[in-house]
Specification:
12 helices; seven-stranded parallel β-sheet; 39% helix; alpha/beta
């Protein structure tokens, strides 16, 4: 199976490594020469192209599956729209309109599209209710990722990622030092974020569907911070309520909406499809970071 990974960054590089190790042919796509070098350093082929540029995408070879994992780089809603809506639509039309189109098109979204549910559980049957301009863009992109490929006879799949963490993204200091604001963390280790997409492709499941890619155990931020501190031999960090944080009055409107958003994301569908998590909870996922502490107490979302 040949897989083209558009926007081959943090998760895409790991996906390419896993696909290559399993005997598949992966091709990563990045805008910059440095990005292509990081792909080649990971052990698979790289192509320099902008996912929003139809002409540039011609340099990418035909593929059995296309994975759209591009990022807007943490910028605002307009930048997100350029990548996730306009870029995605361009990529779908380009690849699905080829003489030899892909059989699958996978878009990596975010569980942020669910919005606020007061700490209740959400699953793929829960209506999405984005609360920020950026998550509204992601919700629009999800519709494009499923409906537009279908116009070409290609099956689209949406992989909704919980907060990504892993090598270079553990961010221990945020939780060990605090202060930690209350709420729930829904997380997935980078290796499982990539592994789930690889599994969906290899097992030929979830065509035309959305799947939550999260670990088994959403956790209270306070409980998570206390566990991390104990594991690292540090005192429990200071805590604050949402009201305490809002009272500071220094949050932007989008940041305030994010702070008020609370939910627990179910991965039951992913489990039912047969995927076995390498890191079922944060306890396994953070083990390497804890063992490296404090020598490397850097980089969860």
């Amino acid at each position: 199976m040949r897989v083209a990974i558009l926007g081959c960054g943090y998760v895409g590089l790991e996906l390419g490594r896993q696909l290559t190790a399993a005997g598949h042919d992966a091709v990563g796509v990045r805008r910059s020469a440095a990005g292509v070098e990081s792909i080649e350093a990971a052990g698979f082929a790289g192509v320099q192209a902008d996912v929003t540029d139809d002409d540039a995408l011609a340099a990418v070879p035909d593929a059995d599956a296309v994975v759209f994992a591009a990022s807007s780089g943490g910028r605002g809603a307009e930048a997100a729209r350029e990548v996730y809506v306009e870029g995605l639509a361009t990529a779908v039309d380009h690849f699905c309109g080829r003489t030899d189109p892909p059989d699958r098109f996978v878009y990596t979204s975010s569980t942020g599209v669910y919005g606020d549910h007061g700490g209740d559980w959400v699953d793929e049957g829960t209506p999405i209710e984005p609360t920020t301009a950026k998550t509204e863009v992601l919700a629009e992109a999800e519709r494009i990722a499923v409906e537009q490929p279908a116009e070409y006879g290609v099956d689209g799949t949406v992989a909704r990622y919980a907060g990504l963490y892993g090598p270079d993204r553990y961010r221990l200091a945020r939780y060990v030092e605090g202060p930690v604001t209350e709420g729930y963390l829904n997380m997935v280790h980078r290796d499982d974020a990539a592994g789930a997409v690889r599994y969906l492709l290899e097992s030929d499941v979830a065509r035309g569907e959305a799947v939550n890619v999260a670990d088994d155990e959403p956790v209270s931020k306070w409980a998570f911070a206390d566990w991390l501190a104990e594991q690292c031999g540090e005192p429990e960090p200071p805590k604050r309520t949402v009201e305490d944080r809002l009272a500071a009055g220094d949050l932007s409107a989008p940041a305030e909406r994010r702070l008020r958003t609370s939910k627990r994301v179910s991965n039951a569908k992913l489990r039912e499809l047969g995927y076995e998590l390498a890191f079922p909870t944060y306890r396994e996922g953070y083990r390497a970071a804890v063992e490296a502490y404090p020598a490397d107490n850097g980089g969860t979302t």
